[in-house]
Write a structure and sequence with these properties.
This protein is mainly alpha-helical. It is about 80% helix and about 0% strand. The longest helix has about 40 residues.
Length: about 160
């Protein structure tokens, strides 16, 4: 009889840790996706630039920082997620690179904006491969997070 409160307390701690672990992984996944989405914004940022050295420096610095964030998240996902999630994230990264890099090059070859009415709005860049890879990634991430939920509910109450 004396063992029951200890067992119940232990199971609550395990469940609490499990929920925390799931939340941390979900946050990692969200930030990893956001890093790639930031990169996919690169062509739009470039097309909206003005003709100053500061603007060019700011954009190239932001793109470089985003590439660093993607690399960081690739490593974190590889360390903390199942291989299926890591593989799907790497496929998402590869798709965005194939799409965004040529679009950025083309954007740099356009004239900088000098007036507000020249700001390109509503001109979408093709990101169909990135969107498809993102959808597959989210499905894989949801499956992983779901498996963590299931693991939390299988707590041994002995």
């Amino acid at each position: 009889m004396q063992l029951a409160p200890f067992t119940l307390g232990r199971s609550k701690a395990v469940i609490g840790y499990g929920h925390q672990r799931r939340a941390e992984r979900a946050t990692l996944y969200g930030r990893a996706i956001a890093a790639v989405e930031d990169y996919l914004e690169g062509p739009y940022r470039i097309r909206r630039r003005d003709d100053t050295a500061e603007s060019r420096f700011g954009i190239t610095s932001a793109i470089s920082d985003t590439e660093t964030a993607i690399s960081l998240h690739q490593a974190l996902v590889e360390m903390h997620a199942p291989n299926a999630v890591s593989d799907a994230y790497n496929a998402f990264v590869a798709a965005h690179q194939r799409e965004a890099r040529p679009q950025m090059t083309a954007a740099w070859n356009t004239h900088p904006t000098t007036t507000d009415d020249q700001v390109p709005v509503g001109q979408a860049c093709d990101r169909s491969a990135s969107d498809e890879a993102r959808t597959a990634l989210i499905i894989t991430m949801k499956a992983d997070l779901g498996s963590l939920d299931e693991a939390h509910h299988r707590v041994d109450l002995r």
